Amino acid sequence: MTVHFYLVRHGQTQLNRYHRLQGITDSPLTKKGIRRARRLGIQLQNIRFTEVYTSDLKRTQETARIILSENQKELPKIIRNPGLREISFGNFEEMKNRHMVPNAIKKLGIGQIFSAAISKKRVAAVTNLFGKMDEGAQIEDAKQLNARITRTLSNIGKQYEEQNVNILIVAHALILSLFIENLSGDVPLFLLKNARVSQVDYAKGKFEIVNINKKKSIK
């Protein structure tokens, strides 16, 4: 028996559009975000989802509703789970991406930035930089963030491990990318893309990657 997790990063938001850091700060979907979420809904329209989980941030809930609006099967309710919430970037929330590198170099030095960029586990290394730059904000490190998402998905998976089911998860770029990276997945340079699905199966207490950032139809 296998739980098929369909992991989706929310659609593009206004903060995404203007290249600003977005963790716990919420921002509405753009027209492009809505359009691509609907396109993904059409791609997944023939999959019967037993449950749908989102984070407690509105952009994931809105994306899930759009995806489900295109589904041809019986629709489950959307369950909000704080365990799927994105990392908080502390004082760096809403900062323009192009300002992050100068800030990081100033606080940490070019050596740490370069090491993180070329690290085998690049997502984890970059995640840890935020806590080093803003210690007072108590930002989760990579180990804590991965433990949270793994625990959350494991708890969901255990509810259905005696069945073959499909579970839709709509969450965020960093937390989902870190989870996949820790399963030895090849995460794209700029993390998982908006409104794109990755499939991870859960069986006998273990996760296995099926695909990442899937673009074509899944059957």
TrEMBL record:
Substrate binds at R9, H10, G11, Q12, T13, Q14, L15, N16, R59. One of its GO terms (molecular function) is fructose-2,6-bisphosphate 2-phosphatase activity. SUPFAM superfamilies: Phosphoglycerate mutase-like. The active site is at H10 (tele-phosphohistidine intermediate), E86 (proton donor/acceptor). The keyword Hydrolase applies. GO terms for cellular component: cytosol. Gene3D superfamilies: Phosphoglycerate mutase-like (3.40.50.1240). Transmembrane segments: none annotated. Keywords: Hydrolase. It holds the Pfam family His_Phos_1. CDD domains: HP_PGM_like (cd07067). This is Histidine phosphatase family protein. The lineage of its organism: Bacteria, Bacillati, Bacillota, Bacilli, Lactobacillales.
